[in-house]
Amino acid sequence: xxxxxxxxxxxxxxYETDMxxxxxxxxxxxxxxxxxxxQSDAVGLSSEKVNQMGLGWIVxxxxxxxxxxxxxxxxxxxxxxxKSYNRYFCYRDFWIHDIRKQELAHMHTVFALMDQxxxxxxxxxxxxxxxxxSEYATxxxxxxxxxxxxxxxxxxxxxxxxxxxxxxxHVNNVxxxxxxxxxxxxxxxxxxxxxxxxxxxKKEIRYGQKAVSQAQIxxxxxxxxxxxxxxxVNDELSCRAVCDWKLRKEExxx
Amino acid sequence: xxxxxxxxxxxxxxYETDMxxxxxxxxxxxxxxxxxxxQSDAVGLSSEKVNQMGLGWIVxxxxxxxxxxxxxxxxxxxxxxxKSYNRYFCYRDFWIHDIRKQELAHMHTVFALMDQxxxxxxxxxxxxxxxxxSEYATxxxxxxxxxxxxxxxxxxxxxxxxxxxxxxxHVNNVxxxxxxxxxxxxxxxxxxxxxxxxxxxKKEIRYGQKAVSQAQIxxxxxxxxxxxxxxxVNDELSCRAVCDWKLRKEExxx
Lengths: 254, 254
Fold this sequence. Notes:
Keywords (chains A, B): Fatty acid biosynthesis, Fatty acid metabolism, Hydrolase, Lipid biosynthesis, Lipid metabolism, Transit peptide
Largest sheet of chain A: 12 strands, mixed
CATH superfamily of the largest domain in chain A: Hotdog Thioesterase
Number of domains of chain A: 2
Oligomer: homodimer
Protein name (chains A, B): Acyl-acyl carrier protein thioesterase
Domain Acyl-ACP thioesterase-like C-terminal (chains A, B): 153-246
Largest interface: A-B, 33 and 33 residues
Family (chains A, B): Belongs to the acyl-ACP thioesterase family.
Shape of chain A: globular
Organism (chains A, B): Ligilactobacillus ruminis
CATH architecture of the largest domain in chain A: Roll
């Protein structure tokens, strides 16, 4: 059977947007993941069901390209496609389009399956992948990985909150965005808008732990900046990312 | 003209729910406020427009009753009604119903208008209230107020994050819920579910400030608890609340 995509319509609510009137990066990923969740529900493999098997899907890498961030009250189309898989990894693509079919954002994501007790990645059983009609590929994708920080320009500490925890009983990846980007501070986040981001997740964070979010800010042009991010718990790396930004201009926003 | 309500349909997404599979209290208020925002847009008085006049609506008190929290993927109806107003305050009611028209939650809210430069409450101009067809009432409502803490059982510190700030350039009230309830910790929030909450907002919190969230936990029965909350910045009270909880039981959840 041919590989199939899944698409849905969504209206961006006011509380899904920030001071800039647009969706933040973490929320953008939430929106994309919504289509993935809804597809899983539709094929009868909801997170709850996978959870009852003692398993849970986790994301190991996200690569996001942003043409324009969805705006407050905007109606968007979210699409997902479980592209291919091998024994341990699933590769899934996501897109957000506006009502004129213009692409706003694209994300390529690597998923793995975690054993809830062992907290380790396990081989993907056929019955958990078959309903998505992905293509089997023997090769493991070689994606570019974000580089280590050369220096720490900004640093903030984050204590895990109740609302950071997801069905896998650890901090949901999406909250890492808040920690990574909030460390850049308000002035930066108003001045610049994100263009692309590459995030590699290394180790889960549990309730009760304290995370430190470190960032390096490097000008790459007159109006462009690259930021490098690391989240650590007790000096152990949980997440590493690189993000490209451009100056926020009215003509780009409207 | 007769006073009018405003109603809309909403599907609860997975990211609007927590580990319990239901909407948290902060998000519940977000959902209710959505109807208020949409009504304001519909009558041509969006937050952006009010903002351009140098003004902003702020909430001074919320009183919430919860029969059942909306669940992941559930379709709900959100209704709002601008009940009455006087020179300085607007009284607005909110309801959430399920698809069988059963009431899930009800909130009574007091709104005031803030001058964005002076950061002070101002008299409500007729043109900002007339389109809602509220009833003019000379009296100021005397609502019960949450009591001062007698002791501090739990305490946590919260630094304002970029995503806490709203169009009024201060921490949105909704984030106070996260601070107040997260201080109770994971075990408590899994064990108990909220029944009602009364929140009084005293002073705004700005970016760069650090808030301390203090809570008192008092058993009121074998399966019921009352929690008292205060949020302070430099020892100055920003918010005070009282919340009633009952033991989370399967028969209440389903």
